[in-house]
Amino acid sequence: MQLLQKDIIIVGGGGAGLRAAIAAAEAAPGLQVALLSKVYPMRSHTVAAEGGAAAVTLAEDSLAGHFQDTISGSDWLAEQNVVDYFVQHAYQELVQLERWGCPWSRKADGTVQVRRFGGMKTERTWFAADKTGFHILHTLFQTSLRYPTINRFDEYFVIDLLVVEQQIAGVLAIHFKTGQLVQIQAKSVILATGGAGRVFHYNTNGGIVTGDGMALAYRHGVALRDMEFVQYHPTGLPGSGILITEACRGEGGILLNKDGYRYLQDYDLGPVTPAGQPKNNYMELGPRDKLSQAFWQQQKLGLTADYQGHAVVYLDLRHLGSQHLTQRLPFICELAKAYVNIDPANSPIPIRPAVHYTMGGILTDINCHTSIAGLFAVGECASVGLHGANRLGSNSLSELLVFGKVAGEQAAALAQQTSLVPVSAIMAQSKHQQTSISSLFGNSSESMVAIRTEMTQAMEQGCGIYRDNNGMQRCLTSLHNLKSRYARLTVSDSSKVYNSALLQHVELGFSLDVAEAICRSALARTESRGAHQRLDEGMTTRNDRDFLQHSLALRQADGSTAISWQAVTITSLPPTERRYGAAAHSPANSNISQLKAAQEKGLQHE
Amino acid sequence: MNKTISISRYNPEQDSQPQLQTYQVVSEHSTSVLDALLQVQQQDPSLSLRWSCRMAICGSCGVMINGIPKLGCKTFVRDYPEQLVISPLAHFAVEKDLIVDMSPFLQHLSAVKPYLINAEKSLQPHKQTPAQLAKYQQFANCINCGLCYSACPQFGLNPEFIGPAAITLAQRYNLDSRDQGKAVRMPQLNSKNGVWACTFVGFCSEVCPKKVDPAAAVNQGKVASASDFIISMFTP
Questions:
Q1: Total-model pTM
Q2: Which residue is catalytic, options A233, A288, A391, A520?
Q3: How many domains does chain B have?
Q4: CB–CB contact A98 B125 (8 Å)
Q5: Is A463:A475 a contact under the CB 8 Å cutoff?
Q6: In a shared domain, residues B135 and B149
Q7: Which residue ranges of chain A lie beneath pLDDT 50?
């Protein structure tokens, strides 16, 4: 085992991890930062984000507007103090990216262009064509090369956190290239490992998105918050789930069922807006949860079409014209051509919802600090409290930046005040893990592929767009069976160099833990809110009396999950009915406009 | 449809050199080469490869397909009715099976100072017109997959050549209206392992899966390097 010492460890080299690394390096140039990633940083899944990053930009927009859209989008389960901090700092972070060279799309006068996005009442989404995540990630990666104190550990896979009496002491990782175990001590550790979309069968996520960081923290007793809220993106390609960005609808794309009917008008999102004249918060620019639910309803009614065995509806971009598509949505044109052999200028794209994002994650406070001293979490793996029951598209790229900076600065400040936990206190834990890893090798009758496939199918069937008690109970039973089979599973390949089988084995263990936390949290929430919709009698609507609360999934000593509840922080926007389309302007919601006026006074650009 | 594919296998702990091994996969119309490799990995978990996004943006899954560098996820089995041979990217040291040592590539990228150099401190965004953006936008689309290095005969002969992607990245910043760092990047581009090592075969641009056209970047780099040299002759 190799033994190393650093000041700060960051696990994950995506947008959040890189932003945190840069913030830490700038805040404390004397500290050594170790940036561990199981892939080269520019392979991280931030790369696949397409549509954009939100921040209040136009003169006619307001911080209160972004605040209100995010809270309403979250179905009132966002932490309002966190949303407040977020909307106040998002703009400066996008400008920071601009100062670092991000190629944001521009207006003719050279100022930054913004586009419409679902659930946002004003255009406020910055974009770099339709490869915004790619450009943010590469800009951050390239900028990180300026800082000599950022020490990259590419293709190092963290298998455990080292914790002594609720104090972080470091991490234990496998160097993929050599198979060697590496123990790195540090004064603070930031988890920035991304989401867990791969626990579902149909997803937009890369193969690496297996919930690693969530499971690492959960196994050490940190709560996972709001795990029942899993976002289905309404427009993934059939079969593969490859993401077709919401920006298609922001630019004016429309959704059609098999009869060519714009079915969203039947789900409280109308009236119909003319094709090519999108209107914020109407029809195709409703929030993702509502749109995915509308697909499910259409499927039940037999109004979806079939594409090679998959139920689909159509995303029609033809009226936007070839030139506009090439300029604004070049990647979508490339993807549609490569994966469904369609030119969007000539034919509608078959699409269906696919799991995209985990709203929940590792519980942190507004400083990204977890319940373990010195352990931070940020980005999709974390639940800082921004998204609640449903994330609005383009809020998460801004989140990576705003809270990546917070996490980096907080971790640096803490590392400057503390010293390393003595190595003697952690060696036993490291040795124990070393023994566990070496005992994995051998031959068994269980198949990793079978367990993984059955897990993703069980989650799809039990914890999908709509859920009921029986389905979730069956899912939970399956997960328990799969966990016992996993305990008997061995790794047949005992080689050291680039042992993919070993990595996938450990990842599967992480995924199974996260899957159980999702299913248990979903069972416990006996109401419908945001992305969590139940079909059981008496549970089909929002129930603020009992469930205006966050779920907390805590691992018990026997390995099971217990659910407890945490109050939601509400500062200025008390819960009202969540409405889109024309319904949003009905008298019942007039208290929102009054509140908006009150908030404008309290929320101003810094 | 069943399809036979050949994969180059190499385990440095056992084998003296890579060997082709054949496998049967089920291929449908939409089956990519990456899908086929993952099917093989299900049969034989010891197969090692890099992959993640499946949508040609993360740059992980570059391999040689019948001797041509390609992304596995954007190449389809249906287009290879005859033989289909998959081997690791050329011109890089093979670590195991389809995994190569990418560290020379990363070193070359880092060497050209690929970040915006601008001493001005401001909290306001720069202005940049669509025309100014268009000057470098294409070069900013490089996904760092490394295919152009496998296509480049010069990199094959001289691994110190900084190569197409690094030169493209240098040009991406040199051409950015917000950047002031050209002077510090030019010595690297002017050096014997910089733009002049390129013999303009142009295969790098042919294999680029994102139409970045690194050959054009190298050529522009040569023009910049030449004018840099001429200016230096007349500057005391």
A1: 0.96
A2: A233
A3: 2
A4: yes
A5: yes
A6: yes
A7: 590-591, 593-594, 596-598, 600-606
Helix ranges restricted to H, B98-209: 103-111, 130-137, 147-151, 153-157, 163-174, 182-190, 203-207
Are residues B132 and B207 part of one domain?
yes
Residue type, A565: W
Tokens of A280: 């914020």
Residue A249 designated active-site: yes
Query: What's the CATH number where B17 sits?
Result: 3.10.20.30
pLDDT of residue A604: 44
* A585 is an active site residue: no
Domains located in chain A, CATH noted: 2-52+131-231+357-430 (3.50.50.60), 233-355 (3.90.700.10), 443-567 (1.20.58.100)
Residues 6+ apart with CB under 8 A from A37: A11, A12, A13, A14, A17, A44, A152, A153, A154, A155, A156
A45, closest residue in chain B (CA to CA): B53
Point out the catalytic residue in the list A249, A391, A525, A534.
A249
pLDDT computed for residue A588 by the predictor: 53
Residue B33 has pLDDT above 80, yes or no: yes
Within 13 Å, how many C-alpha atoms sit on residue A265's CB side? 10
Question: Does A109 contact B at CB distance below 8 Å?
Answer: yes
Are residues B96 and B108 both part of a single domain? no
Which of B39, B50, B58, B74 to probe the A interface (max A CBs under 10 A)? B58
Same domain, B60 and B152: no
Q: Which tokens go with B128? A: 């940049």
Domain span at residue B116 reads 103-234
pLDDT at A444: 87
CB of A103 within 8 Å of any CB in chain B? Answer: yes
What's residue B236's pLDDT?
61
ipTM of the complex: 0.97
Q: In the listed set B70, B100, B130, which residue is the last one of a domain according to the structure? A: B100
CB proximity B217 to A under 8 Å: no
Band (pLDDT 50/70/90 cuts) for residue B228 is confident
**Distance between A433 CA and the closest CA of chain B, angstroms:** 22
Same domain, B70 and B88: yes
Of B67, B100, B133, the domain-final residue: B100
pLDDT tens-digit series, residues B147-202: 999 999 999 999 999 999 999 999 999 999 999 999 999 999 999 999 999 988 89
